[in-house]
Amino acid sequence: MLSCAGYSLAAIRWLAVVPPQNILSRRQFFKILALSAIFCFSVVCGNTSLRYLPVSFNQAIGATTPFFTAIFAFLITFKKETAEVYLSLLPVVFGIVVASNSEPLFHLFGFLVCVGSTAGRALKSVVQEKARSDKFIVFLLAGNATVAYLVNLTNFLVTKHTSALTLQVLGNAKAAVAAVVSVMIFRNPVTVMGITGFAVTVMGVVLYSEAKKRSKATAH
Q1: Could you list the residue ranges that cross the membrane (predicted)?
Q2: Burial class of residue 35, CB neighbours in 10 A (0-12, 13-18, 19+)
């Protein structure tokens, strides 16, 4: 958070990348406060889940974020998608069900906390419409803080120019890469059914993208 504040100060005052923004009302302040609380909840739940679940499975669950985003977008902003878009999200959830049933290191509490983190991440996007112990730890933390700031900045920009649901679907590409890399690094066991479940989820993401394109083309 400190790095985000510092980088934002530089981006606004010195580099003029984005214009300065002021809090104009108490209502706006509470909206920002709610966004911060949701973000904090998502981060805490996500980090807690890593104590009980391997990174690959954690990322697989995170791929269901578009499903929660679609639900929250409808409940909060009353934004409706086409039936084709909603149907394309079914494989996303089905894939996680398959992966969960075959996950060798499945832990119920870790699973529930990870789902809570995923839901919190989805809610946050709607509202906003292995560090190791070595001599390089300071550089790793600095790099992590920098990347975290860039992720936050690009998330806001992508949400501004597209939509909250599209942001979460694009994030699933990261989840797929993170799952593969985590298996390579941590050597956690995976099953054929688990891989199949994640593949079904990614397929659902692809179907969503195509359905979204067609719905936009129809709207225009």
Answers
A1: 29-50, 56-76, 83-99, 105-124, 136-158, 190-208
A2: middle
